[in-house]
Amino acid sequence: MKKVKLTLLAACSLLVISAKAQHKMDMPDVTATPPKVIFSKVLNTASLNNQEFKLVVVNFAPGESSSAHRHPIPTFGYVLEGELESTFEGKKYRYKKGEAFYEEPNGLHNGTRNVSKTKPAKLLAMFIGDNGKPFLVPEKK
Q1: Global pTM?
Q2: Residue 65 DSSP symbol
């Protein structure tokens, strides 16, 4: 457990250093402006063998919402700009710039929306899971 906490702390530290590195990735469209993976690293330590860490920036235009989806791996979020309302497992949450959150794997994320009708919002999502496992799966209608 201690190694996992140290690894997550190191990964978050790496976020600060690597936030400007931007890599594009094809993925399902869950918002009008698709999220952009900005960093991805496969971890091969004794406690995290073949685990991949991803940083994803999700931009929300004023009033924009994401569609229903699930994250099959642990999800950490940090609001970079604006204010977001998120519905996770039927419960609504509001997050402002500078606030962070965690979502359990496979929970139904009914959607996230930018509460402002005039200003954009930006979310940094962090994922860690098996190498190559998708971090986002659209909910079937």
Answers
A1: 0.70
A2: B
Exposure on the CB side of residue 7, measured as CA atoms within 13 A: 19
CB 65 within 8 A of CB 113: yes
Fold adopted by 2-138? Jelly Rolls (2.60.120)
Give Cα 64 to chain centroid, integer Å: 17
Distance CA 96, CA 79 (A): 6
Residue type, 44: N
Which amino acid, 111?
G
pLDDT tens, residue by residue, 76-102: 999 999 999 999 999 999 999 999 999
Q: Which residues, at least 6 apart from 2, have a Cβ–Cβ distance to it below 8 Å?
A: none
Give the separation between CA 85 and CA 41, rounded to whole angstroms: 29
Nearest to 81 by CA among 104, 103, 64: 64
**Residue 106 amino acid letter:** N
